[in-house]
Design brief:
Elements (H helix, E strand, L loop, with lengths): L6 E5 L4 H13 L4 E4 L10 H4 L9 E4 L2 E4 L1 H11 L10 H35 L4 H9 L4 H12 L4 H24 L10 H10 L2 H4 L10 H11 L2 H7 L5 H4 L10
Bound molecules: glutathione (GSH).
Glutathione binds next to α1 and α6.
């Protein structure tokens, strides 16, 4: 997509934190220059990207001279700065609910999904590489806490109690989502909103990653919601930018309800 909007998005796969501003831009119909960074190749720690985001994390977005970081804050900026369908409800109570869900997901639920993802996908994807080369890549990471996360992922040394706590939070989060989606069509209001975009980026692979907890029998409302978001043209366009097997996992949502 070529950008007449002056927006460049630096992103990895169309999921998790990268997927949030990607999907918001597609929903708003904002053309942007897509700059794919391969997280597994440590592209996010190379000097040309650190010149844009010195923290060395993805995503980042530039709009003219402005450099924006933090995926949820970028989504809110995109919604405010560009025309197109509003993704934050005008009604105060609905807007509060959108922000409640985004806070809950970003602070409490997403780190648990992330820990599980890093232990089952990111770590195993890079573990077979030359240890000296990996160590040099880790030394270049600007944020100490990200160095710790990479070391844990590579060694597979996520403490069992931390993994158990992450699994507990994911199970609880699934329960909250199912309950909310039993009350209304979308997560936070009667209209599709940033809360749905945020939630989809966490939960799209639940029927694959947590099949005993999330499926058509146990969580029919989550499954209805995931399939409805996946069917949106913006979601299809967004996920077409994925390059790895991880992005292909979303096609589980093409299955018919059981
Ligand atoms: N709170 C930030 C988190 C950004 C973040 O940590 N992104 C991860 C990918 S989802 C990352 O860049 N990891 C790269 C690394 O740790 O090397 C946001 O929401 O944008």
């Amino acid at each position: 997509m070529s950008a007449t909007s002056g927006v460049t998005l630096y992103h990895w796969e169309p999921n998790a934190n990268s997927g949030k501003p990607m999907l918001a831009l597609f929903e708003k119909g904002v053309a942007f220059d897509s700059h794919y960074l391969d997280l597994l190749n440590f592209d996010q720690h190379r000097p040309d990207y650190l010149a844009i985001n010195p923290a060395g994390t993805i995503p980042a977005m530039t709009h003219g001279d402005l450099v924006l970081t933090e995926s949820t804050a970028i989504m809110e900026y995109v919604d405010e700065a560009f025309p197109g369908p509003r993704l934050m409800p005008a009604d105060a109570k609905d807007a509060w609910r959108v922000r409640w869900w985004m806070k809950f997901m970003d602070q409490w639920l997403a780190p648990s999904f992330s820990m599980i993802g890093w232990s089952v996908f990111v770590g195993p994807s890079v573990r077979s590489r030359d240890p000296a080369e990996l160590e040099r890549a880790i030394e270049r990471i600007p944020m100490p806490e990200r160095r710790v996360a990479w070391r844990k992922a590579i060694s597979g040394a996520f403490p069992p109690e931390e993994m158990a706590e992450s699994q507990r939070r994911v199970a609880l989060g699934i329960g909250y989502l199912e309950e909310a989606l039993g009350q209304r069509e979308w997560l936070a209001s009667d209209h599709y909103s940033l809360a749905d975009i945020n939630g989809f980026n966490l939960a799209y692979a639940l029927p694959l990653s947590q099949p005993a907890l999330s499926n058509d029998t146990l969580t029919p409302n989550i499954m209805r919601w995931l399939r409805a978001i996946y069917a949106r043209p913006a979601t299809k366009a967004c996920w077409a930018l994925g390059r790895t097997d991880m992005a292909r996992r979303v096609t589980i949502l093409e299955s018919e309800p059981a």
